[in-house]
Specification:
five-stranded antiparallel sheet, mainly beta, globular, single chain, 5 strands
Length: 72
């Protein structure tokens, strides 16, 4: 699977562009902590996957709550 640019050109809190297969830290407001996720494209949507489980739609996060940690 190749690394793909998100159609919206979404960026993290530092202005770094987010791609599929990037590892992203996302701030969970309800739990008040950061979680490590992989950006995936499933069923026509960009999503965050944590521990092989899709947790949330990427578009539900604001840029200031996302931080790219590494690309593959």
């Amino acid at each position: 699977m190749k690394r793909e640019r998100l159609c919206s050109g979404m960026r993290d809190r530092d202005g770094k562009e987010i791609f599929t297969q990037d590892t992203v830290r996302a701030y969970e407001l309800s739990q008040r902590e950061w979680s490590l996720n992989e950006v995936v494209f499933e069923y026509g949507c960009f999503k965050l996957r944590q521990n092989n489980r899709v947790d949330a739609l990427l578009c539900s996060y604001r840029s200031e709550y996302l931080q790219v940690t590494e690309g593959k």
